[in-house]
Amino acid sequence: MQTAEIFDSLDYGPAPESAKPAHAWLDAHSRTFGMFIDGAWTQPDDARFFDTVEPATGKPLARITQASTADVDAAVAAARAAQPAWAALRPHDRARFLYALARQVQKHARLFAVLETLDNGKPIRETRDIDIPLVARHFYHHAGWAQLFETEMPGYQPVGVVGQIIPWNFPLLMLAWKVAPAMAMGNTVVLKPAEWTSLTALLFAEICTEIGLPPGVLNIVTGDGRVGEQIVTHAGVDKIAFTGSTIVGKRIRELTAGSGKKLSLELGGKSPFIVFDNADLDSVVEGVVDAIWFNQGQVCCAGSRLLVQENVAETLYEKLRMRMEKLRVGDPLDKAIDIGAIISPRQLQKIRDLVATGVAEGAQIWQPSTPCPSEGNFFPPTLFTHVTPTATIAQEEIFGPVLAAMTFRTPAEALALANNTRYGLAASVWSEDINLALEVAGKIKAGVVWINCTNQFDAASGFGGYRESGFGREGGREGLYEYVRRIQTADVRPPMSDNDGLPSTVSRPTSPIDRTPKLYIGGKQARPDSGYSRAVHGPNGAVIAEVGAGSRKDIRNAVEAARAAAGWGEASAHNRAQVLYYIAENLAARRTEFATRITAQTGAAAAEAEHEVDQSIEHLFAFAAWADKYDGAVHRTPMRNATLAFNEPIGVIGIACPEHTPLLGCVTLAAAALAMGNTAVLIPSEKHPLSATDLYQVLDTSDVPGGVLNIITGGRDELAKTLAEHADVDAIWYFGTPEGAAMIERASAHNLKHTWIGPTTTSFTPFDAALQHELLRQSTQVKNVWAPYGA
Amino acid sequence: MSHARNPGTPLDLNWVERVRVNRSAVERRTASLPGRRTVKQAWQAAWLMRAITLIDLTTLQGDDTPGNVQRLCAKARRPLRSDITDALHAGPLHLHVGAVCVFHEMVRTAVEALHGSGIPVAAVSTGFPAGMTPFALRIQEIEHSVEAGAAEIDIVISRRHVLTGNWRALYDEICAYRHACGHAHLKTILETGELATLRNVQQASLVCMMGGADFIKTSTGKVTVNATLPVGLTMARAIRDYREKTSHIVGFKPAGGIRTAKQALDWMILMKEELGDDWLRPDLFRFGASSLLADIERQLEHHVTNRYSAAFRHPMM
Questions:
Q1: What is the Cα Rg of chain B in Å?
Q2: Please, what is the average pLDDT of chain B?
Q3: Minimal C-alpha gap between B92 and chain A (Å)
Q4: Most buried residue among A322, A498, A609, B53 by CB atoms closer than 10 A?
Q5: Are A250 and A227 in contact (CB under 8 A)?
Q6: What is the reported pLDDT for A381?
Q7: What share of chain A is helix, strand, coil (3-state, %, to 5)?
Q8: Does the annotation mark B217 as catalytic?
């Protein structure tokens, strides 16, 4: 009489999704897998197998291969060989392949979902309803970008061979995020799935064969971090795209420093989930469920820090506890399970350790009374209240189903707490007051802000972090630029004329009054801390002036001034444009003086020098024009909402200027940075700094607020290194030597600042559309704000 | 299993004004819930058997006669074919529907037809479905139906009071209806399809409960949009909020548009998740439905025989 008993209790029974087809697929491969290189499978090698394990049971599912150096070489060679033909395909033909992949994923959707759940441990509800549909959507969307390559990406070419390393938390979805844009833009790929979760990538390789993807376009190598490192350091790879931990991301930044490889990193987070007292608290509770109990909390953008307005905190906590009693932890293949298995015993132990730390540090822990399986890697949903910002669990990414809650009093305090982190991946804001919600969304330092929702993803919207959550975006138009390079026609000026001779126009300054420029910090001239000056030589070697010898402390002061001037970014774009026009106007008034100075320094012919001044004025006009025209976008994501892509300033940018065009280089770079709302610390041309120091008076008379642009003369690499190492500098642009570039990229790894590297000869000529857009892109980072609506 | 009736509370306008409902978030919850919970096999059969006991088997047509109401009542007594009942070992459960719901003119017929069955008769009232008849007549209509033997009165609220934010008028109306009901239970139909916003729905739900409603009910079944899961979730959360603040228990009745066994399970899952198992019993939860039972019968026959069924194989009402 089982039915009658259930009639009384009305329990949920078991609702298992059958794993038979997935097991049959594994059996058909004898549960051993080689790798997919150049369109063929490598022979499985007994000596190099390792197990991939089912997290829910701890049992091995299959044996996969640890790639060797030779395998990685072969994969890169195959990708290299395939790339020209792939890039030469008509965009429409590339679109057809991507479209076929989308269709094929849909046709095998359930097999992918079950296999993913087996291998990863996440609930079948998530793989079936979220992961796999998003994978198909990503390929459809990027089939479209492939189709539109010529019309939408003029002036760009593929990067070449792309090395991609993906994590275990969304195995196939991360493959899609990486592979789809890379292939759409004409690149070929060597991809390494995480060693714990390679199976769906291997199944994906099979569907590539089914649709007739040309050999070598996608190569999949398996193995642990050593394989990843081989890809990262491989000379035949042009770009690395990585999603994973911040520690590994920094390591990759260091390993690729100076290599010229493009790099995009999507790393960790400790994302705030902010609840105001005028939110729909019952909906907030469901938001929290989706924020931290989605995928067992093993989500880089998990809303793991709950910030609640103090007057509703206890009410919300009580609602949360009631809701947590309803969460079901267990067999991920059961269709009615909310929380599946943690990926590995190692990860489980890490969660346990951090939870123990949370308790030891005084936070109040609460877990529901519902059962949690003792076999397999399971951890119950956990709520910590009375957490303080000093607590380890408020700072460290736990990557588990553990929520750390604290309270705030005012919107300003909520923002301060939200931004009190090295990370900046995502944030969630809950309020029924649109004024409050948009204000907070604008001021949060994060690449994605979800208003009254959380963990929403779509191929049409960019995803990626601020700060130590990485750089680069995945999805949307903004994500495409990670997989293209600007076609550079001739980004150098004609050779310097008469650099060794004695140009006729050169003359010693006629004024008998000494005019030794100091440094320019906070809108004022400041003596160099060192108390030393540097001689500036003319083209004939004679000393033509002296400038301050800037040092570490001057950089420190300049960065402080630049940070204090952050209000520049909140001023209206119109206002910034007016200031840039004003600089141009004042520069034009002193055209002859500046031209003479260029000649005095570089020996350029008078006409050439005048041309450089004119170009500088024109570039100021160009970025003044762009200031209120480099619009964001409203992405067409498939839900009732506005996904608003804002081009936000990066913050404080350190700029080491090109050497050869002393005025044009620094003016162009500063104009771009300032137009987009950044503040800057600028190191002028080391050899020819006087064009920059002459700008002090121009800036003083052009309404440039103090601190917005700071100028430190001195040894370029020494000063740039201090900037690169400074934790309060958000980006560094370096136009210098290859050795210096490597040093800068290495030194910037510790806080993952954006870097932009160029040769010291860069003269921003021709100043074409693609170059202007690159300057604008380097000056901005895209924040996507999701704002659902509905009366 | 019976709960104390909700005595109502004074009208608390601050509480009503504090209500916030985010439609998108509510819709996300209800859209994902059927993917988060499901019942299969024996569990599904047992849940559907329970669903039968939650039905207010309803006929509200202008052409109702004693004849078709008597048929309805016979079906209410014996909702399942006996061979299916036996196969499910459900005989001892004495399955019957939760109530029969009719217009006032059919109350006596239904009461007589259901005599001895323990099945209550519910009467729609107060100028159903628009509620635009004179107030005094609406009160009298309730009194007449109670006198005729209705144990439950399904009133329609004055939607104009919600749309104009006149909570005092709505509250007073409900209090008067409750008084007129006497021992009969008061079910207040919000007609959510005419309330425009989910915030209005939750505010109206609270005011009805403050006024002493025993049940809050979504719809008349007579307008374009009837019971939807987002509306149901919004009302269920109002019931939970009211219980947390006052300790009073109020029932819930979605009505209109619930025709399939799958829909019934989705509603029951919503109740179990948001309010708890108590709201899966007929004293706190009802479906207002006329054709739902027929689909449940077919699904249960499929469960018993593993063959898909046909409507004509089941006795009609």
A1: 19
A2: 97
A3: 9
A4: A609
A5: no
A6: 98
A7: 45, 20, 35
A8: yes
Residues 6+ apart with CB under 8 A from A499: A539, A602, A603
CA A123 to chain centre: 28
Domain ranges of chain B: 13-313
Q: Record the tokens describing residue A393, joined without a space.
A: 């669990």
Tokens of A634: 């409203």
Minimal CA separation from A10 to chain B, in Å: 6
| Residue carrying structure tokens 């228990």 | B249
Which tokens sit at A677? 């709302």
Residue-wise pLDDT tens digits, A552-570 = 999 999 999 999 999 999 9
Neighboring chain A residues of B272 at a CB cutoff of 8 Å:
10
- Across the interface, do B36 and A336 touch by the CB < 8 Å criterion? yes
Q: Tell me: pLDDT of A268 over 90.
A: yes
Q: What is the pLDDT of residue A496?
A: 47
Look-up: residue for tokens 């979605």?
Answer: B254
CB contact under 8 A, A6 and B47: yes
B91: exposed, middle or buried (C-beta count within 10 Å: 0-12, 13-18, 19+)? exposed
Choose from A1, A281, A283, A457 for mutation: most chain B CBs within 10 A: A283
Record: contact A280-B196, CB cut-off 8 A: no
pLDDT tens per residue, range B178-200 = 999 999 999 999 999 999 999 99
Task: Indicate the CATH number for domain B13-313.
Answer: 3.20.20.70
Residue B202: closest C-alpha in chain A? A280
Q: Where are the alpha helices (DSSP H) in A330-391?
A: 345-360
Burial class (CB in 10 A: 0-12, 13-18, 19+), A574: exposed
**Residue A69 C-alpha from the chain's centroid:** 29
pTM of the model: 0.96
Here the tokens at position A152 are: 């939408």
Which is catalytic among the residues B75, B214, B217, B295? B217
